[in-house]
Amino acid sequence: MIDRRTALTFGCAQCALLAGGGALAQAGEWLAPPRFVRPALDTDEGGLWALMDREEKRLRRSPFRIGDAVLHDYLQGIACRLGAEHCPDIRVYALRTPWFNASMAPNGMMQVWSGLLLRVDNEAQLASVVGHEIGHYLQRHTVERLRDAQSRSAFGMVLNIALGGAGALAQLALLAGQLGFSRDQERDADRIGIILMSKAGYDPREAARVWANLRAEAMASGEDPATRSVLFATHPDPGEREKTLTELAGGRGGETGVDAWRARLDPHLLGLLEDELNRGQFDETLVLLARLIGRDGETGRLLFARGEACRLRGGEGDLTRAIADFEKAATLADAPAAAHRSLGLCLQNAGLRGRAAEAYRRYLDLAPNGPDVEMIRTYIKGLQSS
Residue 11 pLDDT > 80, yes or no? Predict the structure, then answer.
């Protein structure tokens, strides 16, 4: 759990929502700073770099790190395309953590969470998030927060906790809200991020679309998004931000990179969908899946995931909806074997014993070495004996 908690801490503390903010017309008013030199260890910034170096070593060994070299090189390439001369100092790590987030530390360590990867529609949308984080890095916002009198005590607590031992890292997440960037810093990172997007040839209009999709998910619960996520609580008003991003992008176009992005995501899609289901936020998940199905069509993997969300939520009408999705998924080549198992569970709950046994048998045919095959055989025997 240490690495996940570490990721949660610095991810929440330095949330990357999306690039946007500052007008593209002002791009000429900003120039990237020269590459940073490692600060002396006896300075406040040097101490922060040393702490981040230590956390990066843990991150490299984390069981949650996605070890796909092709995906890593792809993400690193996006960061380098945006970061330009700062490319040699940026190191990207993809983590299997099913929330929308990314972060970048002052030493150049960037985390990209799998929940973000699942939610973006194309490379430009991903670049909007990465560009926003690079904006924080180039403007040295974390160092500014360290030196801010109002946040210095919070950073001291972080340093003391982190240096006190790995077991105490669980407490770090509790301080994330105190360490978040100010709204002015978020707007500044937006401005820089969208400039970087435009210079790199990406379509800056995609930034607002990321925000619109996130807001739709967050509203699915019927609660105030600001009470549910630090992403909404510590950033400019969602409606205001979406509107501003749209205006700032103007009519400029650029590359979206749909095909390249989907090719990199596809090998991981089923695992990311399963992680999303494990979050247990089924109303939000169903909003996400409705968007993905609207975009990609009714694929076996997406229908399976939607059926699972309904089955696990267990609300009125969900059993019927789940059966319909599982039955349709079962006819498609990309559906996982688990679709047949879940179909069997739903049919059994609906009292359709013969059809349930048939679905279970199909699951055993497709996954003869599955971890639950003995349990499924027991289900079949029970259905046959009654």
Answer: no
**Domain identity same for 370 and 226:** no
- The domain tally of the chain equals 2
Q: Of 220, 249, 278, which one is at a domain's C-terminal end?
A: 249
CB 254 within 8 A of CB 203: yes
Alpha carbons within 13 A on the beta-carbon side of 123: 24
- E strand or H helix that includes residue 95: strand 91-95
Please report, to the nearest 10 degrees, the dihedral formed by the alpha carbons of residues 189, 232, 215, 24 taken in order: -20
Q: CB under 8 Å to 260, separation ≥6 — which residues?
A: 74, 123
284 and 167 belong to one structural domain = no
31 in a structural domain: yes
pLDDT band at 9 (very low <50, low <70, confident <90, very high): very low
d(CA 311, CA 343): 10
pLDDT at 166: 42
Rounded Cα distance, 371 and 30, in Å:
56
- Domain assignment present for 260: no
Element (H, E) at 342: helix 338-349
Least Cα distance to 189 among 234, 256, 255 occurs for 234
Task: Provide the residue range defining the domain that includes 294.
Answer: 268-385
Q: In what order do the strands lie in the sheet with 91-95?
A: 91-95, 109-113, 102-104
Mean pLDDT of 26-44: 84
CA distance 162 to 160: 6
Q: Is 112 helix (H, G, I), strand (E, B) or coil?
A: strand
Residue that is last in its domain, among 191, 218, 249: 249
């559906």: which residue's tokens?
335
Report residue 89: phi and psi, to 5°. -100, 0
What torsion do the CA atoms of 254, 259, 263, 265 make, to the nearest 10 degrees?
Answer: 60
CATH at 380: 1.25.40.10
Going by their DSSP bridges, the two strands 102-104 and 91-95 should be labelled as: unpaired
Same structural domain, 123 and 232: yes
Do residue 278 and residue 375 come from a single domain?
A: yes
> Could you tell me which residues are beta bridge partners of residue 193?
none
